[in-house]
Amino acid sequence: MQMQVSTTKGLESKGSDAEIRKSSIRRISVEGYDTSLRMEDVDDALREHFASCGKIIHVSIPRNYEETILCRYAFVYVNEEDEEKALRLDGSDMGGQILQIKSYPFHETHLENDLAPMKEVKVYWPQQTLKVTGYDTSLPVEDIEIELEKYFSSHGSFVYQDETASGAIKTKAYIYVRGQDAVDKALELSGRSVEGLNFVVTKVYALPENPPTSGFIHPSNLIRFTREQIEDPNLCFITEGQQKKSDTSEGNQKKKKKKKNKKSKTREGIQKKKKKKSETREGKQKKGVEISL
Q1: Does the predicted TM-score (pTM) go above 0.85?
Q2: Where, by residue number, does the polypeptide cross the bilayer (predicted)?
Q3: Rounded CA gap, 63 and 118, in Å?
């Protein structure tokens, strides 16, 4: 009961439904890239191509999951203030391909015929992680999670507090949804002011090449680092899963080394026994020679 009261108090309406406005994120369609390339390569190329326009919130490249065929349309999501700069890249060259770039608002449907064959079958709906800001940081973590899940109709949320170098407490929040349609709905809700809420999606984490299709996956296992990050010698990326593998590998190596040392000691012991037997034979042979003399 106390939690419900604090939530209501922290998120009480500061206006009416008349304050509802468009999403703070804009969706742009891109056509003309090489569809024979790997999805990850096209994703990296698009992010690099649009980097000068501002922050890239998300890149979506529909594909047929059974045949891994890329759709001829990709979608780049940017903040409202960066849309005009992104549209100016229409007709620009990307890797020898001329791109056709157009605005594709969330309510538009004229590309549905092209996108329909690429729609994810429910069994292939991968979990996607979205970073969110705009909540009341004075509320308890549990209350923020409840409001996020209710607002975005997400499959779950994860809110935690971290202490900065200066000693300040920083709250970070993430929501989890399944499938690109759910991502679009969340991005469409981003930045809208409804009943005093103003949640903003600041990032959609890129999926790895073969994302798990069921069950809850911790976001650290879904992060796909860029080529620049991987090649940067000054950066090191270790996820929880990789750390466990590393620990297991080290443990296995220690076991192997211990086993090897044990075998080595066993061989040494056998050799010593053989040497002792050989010396005993030689001693007996010498004695036999002395007696015969």
Answers
A1: no
A2: none
A3: 5
Residues 223-264 have pLDDT tens digits of 555 556 556 665 554 444 444 444 555 556 655 566 556 556
| Residues 31, 153: Cα–Cα separation, whole Å | 31
Q: Alpha helices of the chain — where are they, by DSSP H?
A: 2-10, 39-50, 83-87, 112-115, 141-152, 180-189, 227-231, 240-292
**C-alpha–C-alpha distance, residues 14 and 16, integer Å:** 7
Residue 114 to residues 32, 70, 105, 118: CA-CA distances in angstroms?
A: 14, 11, 16, 8
Give backbone dihedrals phi and psi of 255, rounded to 5 degrees, phi first: -60, -45
> Which residue from 128, 30, 114 is spatially nearest to 64, judged by alpha carbons?
114
**Token code pair at residue 104:** 């594709």
**Inter-CA distances, 101 with 30, 89, 108, 154, Å:** 5, 7, 15, 30
Strand partners of residue 169: 163
